[in-house]
Amino acid sequence: MTKQDDLVIAEGFKLAMRRLATTVSIVTTGQSGRWAGMAATAVVPICAEPPTMMVAVNQSASSHTAIREGEYFCINLLATRHRELVSVFGGKVAADLRFAHGQWIEGTGGVPVLADSLASLTCAHSRAVSFGTHTLFFGEVVDIANHADIDPLLWMDGGVATGIRTEIV
Amino acid sequence: MTKQDDLVIAEGFKLAMRRLATTVSIVTTGQSGRWAGMAATAVVPICAEPPTMMVAVNQSASSHTAIREGEYFCINLLATRHRELVSVFGGKVAADLRFAHGQWIEGTGGVPVLADSLASLTCAHSRAVSFGTHTLFFGEVVDIANHADIDPLLWMDGGVATGIRTEIV
Questions:
Q1: Which of A2, A69, B19, B163 is the least crowded, having the fewest Cβ atoms under 10 Å away?
Q2: A-chain residues within 8 Å CB-CB of B54?
């Protein structure tokens, strides 16, 4: 089997990534009065001991510098009720006006925590690794807030999906 | 706000991760006659130029050594029709018997590719980083096969979810 050429790969990669359904998060950082945050889908747990999360952030994103320089960041998993926050934190609203949308409280280190998130994981920023166009930020979880229902807001095929329910088998 | 103690974090982390809905993949590697593969949910795109995928694998997983030593690995995103493969590649079936389930063909470098996956991304293994209990494997995408419908199989709250549809807004 011959390898595909770069253009075919680039186009195929975009299409494949539309197929990868992920829970939408808002990654936040900063301290009182200087909060920053952005919608993110490339969020994964990478270790349970110690509990560690990773998020890949495009270096051209408005919040990239703030996350890189912050001592803490918070990964807020979104629920169906946060649907309007996707476009707000996805770039439709200027960086300094985003936190007027949603209920935000101050967490460990002063980072903004979404009060009614599906789950909010405040992380002590432990490592940053550049990788091409992106930076991978690693953080050890130091505070967690989980909220009632499991009703995640997904991103797939360029839009949102809701109403996800685990099947009883 | 005071930080939570380790036990609270460990327990909260498990609960939070049940809330993070992800598309199930089967990560495969190996060459003809010596295939290895495992179900994985910690799969993310980390860069588009060059197209690069990352997967976090527990060092105790039966396929860990094969992936670490392989020149290529393939990330096969699962669709609803692959539901039975989750338990097969999740540990219920011995490593050497797994490929009797599902339709597997040989891809670039001899790695097993799921013929009717949602998308299969064959990656040239470019980097491995140890992180606590896990290893992060990075691979540059060298071959992609995307298939018709976008009907991902999700993992959430300890079970599968299907029938996900993007909403038109």
A1: A2
A2: 44, 56, 136
